[in-house]
Specification:
Elements: E1 10-21, E2 27-51, E3 54-66, E4 76-79, E5 82-91, E6 98-105
Antiparallel strand pairs: 1-2, 1-4, 2-3, 3-6, 4-5, 5-6
Length: 107
């Protein structure tokens, strides 16, 4: 599969979390930038649903970018002022050239 670099027209930052607990014993998570890369973004779908009598919205997007070994499902994607949890990723054809990231937007 040929990679079309011209479609990778947005900049995303992959972030990893670190943290522990604060003085009250509450979880304290901070996010640190790992790498910033060019990517292509495609909307995979969105939906609205009710849970516990509250309306929620959910958006799932697919990001395609150059391969990096600095990724796993514990990372997240920062795109502008929006954040996405990584649900899964695929190293296309195991060639270490392209990564396809499936991510759900944090709301």
């Amino acid at each position: 599969m040929a990679i079309n670099a011209g479609k990778m027209n947005i900049s995303i930052t992959l972030q990893s979390s670190s943290g522990g607990v604060d003085t009250y014993g509450q979880p304290n998570r901070t996010w640190n930038d790992v790498v910033t890369v060019w990517a292509e973004k495609n909307n995979r779908g969105s939906r609205k649903f009710y849970q516990a009598q509250k309306l929620y919205a959910e958006t799932t997007d697919v990001f395609t970018t150059w391969y990096t070994a600095k990724i796993d499902t514990l990372n997240r994607i920062k795109f502008g002022n929006r954040y996405y949890n990584i649900l899964g990723y695929d190293n296309t054809d195991e060639r270490n050239l392209e990564l396809v990231l499936i991510a759900k937007e944090e709301v």
